[in-house]
Write a structure and sequence with these properties.
Blueprint lengths: L5 H9 L5 E2 L15 E6 L6 H5 L8 E6 L7 H5 L2 H13 L4 E4 L2 H5 L3 H15 L3 E3 H11 L4 E6 L5 H11 L3 E7 L12 H14 L5 E4 L10 H8 L3 E2 L1 H12 L11 H5 L2
Parallel strand pairs: 2-3, 2-4, 4-5, 6-7, 6-8, 8-9
Antiparallel strand pairs: 1-3
Helix pairs in contact: 7-11
Length: about 270
């Protein structure tokens, strides 16, 4: 089931409130204009992804999230999501967001990169706001890291992982593996980071030779293991939250490296 939480966002925005802001009070330019507002479409109602990304972005931004309520993580659930994404993009555009991030890579990956590009171009034209999807963002981040051969680790199972691998193959990468940990979709955020690190180590041992280890899904709370695991394995790790922060910084013309969370955010390529 997919449920838009847009009515909640609209009510708060109409009252002059942002659902989340950076650590500092919103910065203002001449004339009292807010420094910027980022609209975020979140695929599931969970703790973590908003508060995790804020430390990697400039103080003074406001964040307005809308939520999709993905509950099962199935292909049929993802296939039904495009109309709800568009409804929330319209909502966030009406709240004068300066940029919209359509999070949740799987619904767009199963469209394929060409159809995804057509969809997002049409939305930008219709609603007049720059936007990008998680999968488009991750492709750009992989290129920034110089990846040609990638190894993916996900928390989804079954034939979907083959579709995710095909998406990256279609945009030019060699995919050495794209396997999912056997964990219920509703509990992915509860998996200890140490267990996920062990899973990634096992995937690397099974399929060596990757330029970058790609993590699919923001649900895993693993920012604490990215840098240590990169150092141990000698391979950059691309996590969705870090990739998202990297691109938002680039689009805002900000260069603010954050060491301790992997090469992408430390070096800001």
């Amino acid at each position: 089931m997919i449920v838009s939480r847009g009515n909640l966002v609209a009510g708060l925005a109409g009252a002059g409130l942002a659902l989340a802001t950076g650590a500092a009070a919103p910065a203002t330019a001449a004339g009292g204009k807010r420094a910027g507002t980022i609209g975020m479409i979140k695929p599931a109602i969970t703790q973590g992804p908003i508060e995790e990304i804020i430390p990697f972005l400039p103080a003074g931004l406001a964040y307005v999230p809308a939520y999709l309520n993905f509950e099962a993580g199935t292909q049929s659930e993802f296939e039904a999501a495009m109309p709800v994404y568009e409804r929330d993009i319209a909502l966030l555009a009406a709240q004068q967001c300066d940029m919209i991030v359509a999070e949740g890579a799987p619904p767009f990956m199963i469209q394929g990169p060409q159809r995804e590009a057509e969809i997002t171009a049409a939305w930008e034209k219709t609603y007049g706001v720059p936007l990008f999807t998680s999968s488009q963002n991750q492709v750009r981040a992989l290129h920034a890291l110089g990846a040609k051969k990638i190894l993916g680790a996900t928390y989804l199972n079954g034939p979907q992982n083959k579709l995710f691998a095909k998406y990256f193959t279609d945009v030019g990468f060699t995919v050495l593996g794209m396997n999912g940990m056997d964990v219920p979709f509703a509990t992915v955020q509860d998996v200890p980071s140490a267990k996920i690190a062990d899973y990634i180590r096992a995937q690397v041992a099974q399929s060596p030779g990757a330029d970058v280890i790609y993590i699919l899904g923001s649900g895993w709370r693993i920012l604490d293991i990215i840098a240590p695991l990169e150092h141990e394995l000698g391979i950059p790790i691309l996590h969705p939250v870090i990739a998202r922060a990297w691109e938002i910084q680039k689009r805002l013309h900000v260069h603010d490296p954050k060491p301790g969370y992997g090469r992408l955010m430390a070096e800001r390529p």
